[in-house]
Automatic annotation (TrEMBL):
Enzyme Commission no: 5.4.99.25
Any one Gene Ontology BP term: mRNA pseudouridine synthesis
The UniProt record lists the keyword Isomerase: yes
Name of the gene encoding the protein in the UniProt record: truB
Residues in tRNA pseudouridine synthase II TruB subfamily 2 C-terminal domain copies: 233-288
Protein name according to UniProt: tRNA pseudouridine synthase B
Species per Swiss-Prot/TrEMBL record: Nonomuraea endophytica
Length: 289
């Protein structure tokens, strides 16, 4: 049986997240493989893969902060809000000054309401939005609250009628960088779309831990499940009696570690469970013992 843990993949361009899962199932020799947070085919970078018991961590890891490097092209819109889509409109951005770009970026920073791209995996009446769009429907998605913790412009390059804006974005789960590109262009009156996206960090897992699919095929590096939980969540070490209780799905007393999942470890340092504090008790979210 494959070791339970996380595999941090540097996803190649043109691969879907599902493509990576399929490849890792063959490499790891197990069907119990999943991913935390989808990356679009155009995007590269950190994709967190869970193997065996670690698949139960993925829903919690998907909610953590993410960091991206991106390039936004001003002067054209597409039906997917990125370079893989069909161009819908073109407007010269030659007159857009860097100061205007910085002001537009500032307006899209902090807590904002964001409309996801029409071509996305969000479900509308039980069906993925992208499937409805490809079937010819005009899908309207509701704005959702997200937080853009940092939106730093690292370069502004004018080339004829287009302007390419390089940026680093640190944001909450659920933030679409494609939507930031679309909305930056809309705010400047020239339209915009994403031409490059690389995810450099998901929670505590960054590119320094990532391996390409080719590297993993040669040597499948798995971050053990206990180390993965210690890196991502606060840690609670318990006695043998507490370990017995939580291993059977029982609640523990809260210890004041705050909101969000907490990793519970037994007397021998073994991972027992993820719990969440609710008032005076800590309720198991997932039991691994």
């Amino acid at each position: 049986m494959a070791e339970s843990g996380l595999i941090i993949v540097d996803k190649p361009a043109e691969w879907t997240s599902h493509d990576v899962v399929g490849k890792l199932r063959r490499i790891a020799g197990t069907r119990r493989v999943g991913h935390a947070g989808t990356l679009d085919p155009m995007a590269t970078g950190v994709l967190v893969i869970g193997v065996e018991k670690a698949t139960r961590l993925l829903g919690h890891l998907a909610l953590t902060e993410k960091v991206y490097e991106a390039t936004i092209r001003l002067g054209a819109t597409t039906n997917t809000d990125d370079a893989e889509g069909e161009v819908l409109t073109t407007t010269s951005a030659a007159g857009v000054a860097e100061e205007a770009v910085l002001a537009g970026v500032a307006a899209l920073s902090g807590p904002i309401m964001q409309v996801p791209p029409q071509v996305s995996a969000i479900k509308v009446n039980g069906e993925r939005a992208y499937k409805r769009v490809r079937a010819g429907e005009d899908v309207e998605l509701k704005a959702r609250p997200v937080t853009v913790h940092a939106f730093e412009v690292t370069g502004v390059r004018h080339s004829g009628d287009v302007v390419d804006v390089d940026a680093t974005v640190r944001c909450s789960s659920g933030t679409y960088i494609r939507s930031l590109a679309r909305d930056l262009g809309a705010g400047l009156g020239v339209g915009g779309h994403l031409t490059y996206l690389r995810r450099t960090r998901v929670g505590p897992y960054d590119l320094s831990l990532a391996r390409t699919v080719e590297q993993l095929a040669e040597s499948c590096v798995v971050l053990p499940i206990g180390e993965a939980v210690s890196a991502a969540f606060p840690r609670m070490d318990v006695t043998a009696e507490q370990a017995r209780v939580v291993s059977h799905g029982g609640r523990l007393a809260s210890v004041g570690l705050g909101a969000g999942p907490i990793g519970v470890f037994g007397p021998e340092g073994e991972l027992l469970a993820l719990v969440e504090e609710q008032g005076k008790s800590a309720k198991p979210l997932a039991v691994f013992a």
